[in-house]
User: Which sequence fits this backbone?
C-alpha cells in the first residue's frame, strides 16, 4: 500500500482541472499579446479566469495579478511595496516561509529597511500585543505575517491583525498560500493590502499563482520586460496554468464544506491513533488543536529513538510520503527554522503529515501502523 500524506508540499492535480487545461495546450496555443484570432482566444481565456477568481474572493478582476507561484507573489508584494511606497520599516515573525523571511532579511542587509520581529510563544502563536507595540513605535510599516503556518499549521487571526494594521496606517501583506482554497476569503472584509495564492496547493497546476492588490494601492512591477498583467509582470502568461488555477479554486470553493469535513476527520483519526499507539508522542505548535490550526496539517513530535535519523527514509521505503518540515527545506542539513524557533528537542524526530481530499482512512491507518512498527522494532532512547 502507498499513502501520499504531503499535501502541504503539493497536491495531486484534479482531473477536472486537467480537462480545462488540455485545449490550451493543444488547440488554443496563440500568444495572448498577439492581435490575431489565435491570440484573442487565449486572451479571453485569461480574462475569464481572472474574473472567476475575483468573483470567488469578492474582489474586482483588476485587483488580481497572475504570477509563477506563491514565492513570486510574496516577493512582488514585499519588494515592490517597499520600493514604491517608500516604507522604511517592516515587521514579520521568525517562523514565516522563507519566501517572506529571506526577502525581508535581504532588504535589511542591503540597507533598504529596518526589520523587527514580533514575539512568538513556545507554541508558535503570534504575540498580537507585541505587534501593537511595534506598530505604535513604527506606525507606517509593512507587516508581513502568514495566515496558516506551512510547518506546524498555526492560524493567525486575520481580523485582529488587520485591525491593528489599519489603526496604524500599516501595509498588511499576508501569505495565504496554505489557506487559499481551504478557507473562504472575503477580500471586501479582510483588511489586507496583499494576499497570495499558489494553484498547486489546492489541486491545481504547478508554476502558477496570483497576487491580490487592494485597490488604490499602486506599486511598480517586480518582473520587468513586458506590458503583460497591465504592466505589472513582464513575460508571456502561463495560459493553461492560469485557466487551471481558476478551475481549481472554483472546485475548492464548490466542494469546500464536504472536503473539510472529510479532511478534519482524517486529522482527528490520526491524532487519536498516534496517541494510542506511540507513548510520548506530542504535536508541534497548535497542530494538535483542530480549532487553532490548519485542518490539513498535523506536525508530530516523536520520542527520541535509534530510528530518528532514518525515520523519513524508512517511511518512504514503506510507500508513505511525508515531510520532516517545510518542503522548501527538504534535503538540507540546517533543519527547520520553525521548529528551531519553537525550541523543539533536537533529539526528537518530527514528521509533518498533511492531508487532502483524495486521502482515505485506510492511508491514515497504514501510516500510523508503519510508524508504530518502526518504533516497536527499535530501542526507544530514554
Assistant:
Amino acid at each position: 500500500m502507498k499513502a501520499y500524506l504531503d499535501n502541504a508540499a503539493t497536491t495531486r492535480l484534479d482531473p477536472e482541472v486537467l480537462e480545462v487545461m488540455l485545449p490550451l495546450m493543444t488547440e488554443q496555443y496563440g500568444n495572448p499579446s498577439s492581435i490575431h484570432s489565435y491570440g484573442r482566444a487565449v486572451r479571453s481565456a485569461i480574462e475569464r479566469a481572472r474574473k472567476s477568481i475575483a468573483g470567488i474572493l469578492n474582489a474586482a478582476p483588476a485587483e488580481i495579478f497572475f504570477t509563477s507561484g506563491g514565492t513570486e507573489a510574496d516577493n512582488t508584494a514585499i519588494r515592490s511595496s517597499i520600493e514604491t511606497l517608500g516604507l522604511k520599516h517592516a515587521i514579520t515573525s521568525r517562523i514565516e516561509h522563507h519566501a517572506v523571511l529571506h526577502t525581508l532579511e535581504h532588504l535589511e542587509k542591503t540597507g533598504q529597511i529596518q526589520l523587527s520581529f514580533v514575539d512568538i510563544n513556545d507554541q508558535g502563536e503570534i504575540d498580537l500585543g507585541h505587534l501593537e507595540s511595534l506598530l505604535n513605535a513604527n506606525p507606517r510599516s509593512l507587516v508581513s505575517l502568514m495566515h496558516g503556518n506551512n510547518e506546524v499549521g498555526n492560524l493567525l487571526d486575520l481580523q485582529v491583525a488587520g485591525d491593528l494594521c489599519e489603526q496604524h496606517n500599516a501595509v498588511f501583506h499576508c501569505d495565504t498560500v496554505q489557506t487559499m482554497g481551504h478557507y473562504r476569503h472575503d477580500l471586501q472584509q479582510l483588511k489586507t493590502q496583499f494576499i497570495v495564492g499558489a494553484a498547486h496547493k489546492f489541486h491545481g497546476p504547478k508554476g502558477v499563482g496570483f497576487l491580490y492588490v487592494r485597490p488604490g494601492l499602486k506599486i511598480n512591477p517586480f518582473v520587468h520586460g513586458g506590458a503583460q498583467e497591465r504592466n505589472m509582470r513582464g513575460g508571456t502568461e502561463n495560459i493553461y496554468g492560469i485557466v487551471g488555477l481558476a478551475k481549481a479554486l472554483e472546485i475548492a470553493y464548490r466542494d469546500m464544506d464536504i472536503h473539510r469535513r472529510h479532511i478534519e476527520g482524517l486529522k482527528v483519526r490520526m491524532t487519536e491513533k498516534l496517541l494510542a499507539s506511540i507513548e510520548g508522542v506530542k504535536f508541534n505548535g497548535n497542530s494538535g488543536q483542530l480549532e487553532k490550526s490548519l485542518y490539513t496539517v498535523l506536525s508530530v513530535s516523536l520520542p527520541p529513538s535509534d530510528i530518528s535519523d532514518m525515520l523519513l527514509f524508512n517511511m518512504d521505503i514503506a510507500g508513505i510520503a511525508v515531510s520532516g518540515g517545510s518542503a522548501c527545506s527538504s534535503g538540507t542539513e540546517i533543519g527547520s527554522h520553525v521548529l528551531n524557533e519553537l525550541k523543539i528537542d533536537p533529539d526528537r524526530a518530527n514528521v509533518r503529515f498533511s492531508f487532502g481530499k483524495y486521502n482515505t482512512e485506510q492511508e491514515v491507518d497504514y501510516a500510523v501502523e508503519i510508524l508504530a512498527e518502526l518504533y516497536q522494532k527499535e530501542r526507544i532512547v530514554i
